[in-house]
Structure prediction request, 414 residues.
Amino acid sequence: MQLRYSFRLYPNGPQCSALARAFGCARMVFNDALRARETARAAGLGFIPSAELSKQLTAAKKTPERAWLGEVSSVVLQQSLRDLEAAYRNFFNGLKSRRPRIGPPRFKSRKDTRQAIRFTANACWKITSGGDLSLPKIGAVRVKWSRVLPSVPSSVTVVKDSAGRYFASFVVETEPTILPEVEPVIGLDLGLGHFAVLSDGTKIDSPRFLRRAEKRLKRAQQTLSRKEKGSRNREKARAKVARAHARVADARREFHHQLSTRLMRDNQAVAVENLAVKGLARTRLAKSVHDAGWSAFVSMLEYKAVKFGRSLVRIGRFEPTSQVCSHCGVKDGPKPLNVRVWQCRACGVWLDRDVNAAVNIAKAAGLAVTACRAQVRPGPVPAQCEEAGTHLDGHPAVAGTPRAVARGAEVNRS
Prediction:
């Protein structure tokens, strides 16, 4: 399977200038290629292939107007053309319903606060004996190694985020770490009052990182609004706002990693409800929904299930988990959200709404796993954009994933 490892970079002054030059050249090449294709489309001409764009780039480097493109590595410029090709491919696949529909490629702006360039093996980058990352025409950049790479990476992506931090991102091939089998099958009910309620009765409080940082973010945003547009003080204030948001995002990501790892190590199978996060994000609870980060958390559960040899089962969002009594199985009807504890009219048992839903999710997951009788075998998983993870959306189901489990359950029921 593929995993992405991200490490903090600390370039010095000249190296920051060289990286800024590389970011600008890659952006210019991307925009020139996109403009050439848009001009050809407006004139009724055919789609310009990537090979022709590469020839135009080579010719442009010999002109006085684009001679400065030779100051950066040619691999960075070629990878920028590959990024444009991938953007067009995703756009056309969305039109053909092969993936979720997205918009066409758009021009990049020099005011974009996030920049990235990629070096492949052809660029002859390397990790020096002193632990620095040597990049062509940039130099040896100091790296904060937080762990050891499991294998030799084929490429490295240098990213500058909105907060002005630099990162080196490696995608490496690694073997899954299959943990010993355990018995528990846990159900997980995600919510806002509690981040998660487990079927064994455990309630995990929601950290609410964004809510706790609202005052600090408000003050930083007010300071930014008072600065003159285009001034250096405004750029400093913008960076301060970005750093405040980065601290919130980092804390939320760390919480998701720790909780997802603990759940996958302690349980053989984890069941979650397939929530309509996009729909909930359009309601009055939008800020709380985004603060919880359910989609990112479930994505971590997906790739860690493959990594540790576990199983993740998704329960349909229309399952009446809050309406069915987990004790006798009688459906008691819908209830308003303010009802947190209710009594079953059939058996008279008092039930906690969230714990009852988690138990029903666990029961549905246990039936699905038993019906398909599928062992968890890790399969090929592409790396996700976040650190140390994979994402299975839009890719063929592997044994043990929710899609494979549901498919096996349907076969056995028929």
Notes: Residues 263 and 270 are 8 Å apart (CA to CA). The chain has a mean pLDDT of 86.
